[in-house]
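--- STAGE predict ---
source: upstream dedup step, 1 unique chain passed
mode: sequence only
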Amino acid sequence: MLAAERRDHLLGLLAREGKVVAKSVAADLGISEDSVRRDLRDLAAEGLCHRVYGGALPVSPAVADYTTRESVTPDGKRKVAKTAAALVRPGSALILDGGTTALAVARALPPELACTVITHSPTIAAAMIEHPQAEVFLLGGRIFKHSAVACGAAAVEAAQNVSADVCLLGVTGVHPDAGLTTGDAEEAAMKRALAARAADTYVLASSEKIGTASRFRVLQWEDVTGVITDADPDHTVIEQLTARGVEILAAG
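--- STAGE serialize ---
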């Protein structure tokens, strides 16, 4: 099989099965595992897969820059945001993560809602100025420009001194095996710090993130209350998560 044919085969597996197992592919094609690993390295260098031990997973489109992500599935993000905003009760405290879906949540909150919003995102804090009844607490630290959020030791320390009823958390990848992931180690640590300070944590996951993975794990499945997504309930990944007992909140 030519290199171009192997490439198409690997991309097809990623699309159909949500993963590539190098050992299985080598056996099926009658080639060495080293050949498969080389092909996967080439695909990863092009940003077409995320390499993991033993193979590869689909790469998340949410690793693009902030401006680019704003144009990715905006309708899906609005659906997720509407469902997430309905979880915020009058008088409650909300930890709202940064990113484009979280910004959609801020815009979806009723203007008259009296609540407390805790965030490490200057973008979210600015959006909440339009909500006169909401108290806004901005956690500071080094700004990670990819997501327009504060990260690092100062931000994590600040997060440890707050508490909330619910945390709405963004990730770049939602995969049954890889778990909940993001592309930066410090951002992953900050997300864990935020989730640890809320009674309930819901993951904001528009459909393009379902079945994909990034480099750094954020949380284990048992650490979250549920996943809010507009993905088709019949999506293989959604079925697998439901079978694991993960609560799925359908956004429509």
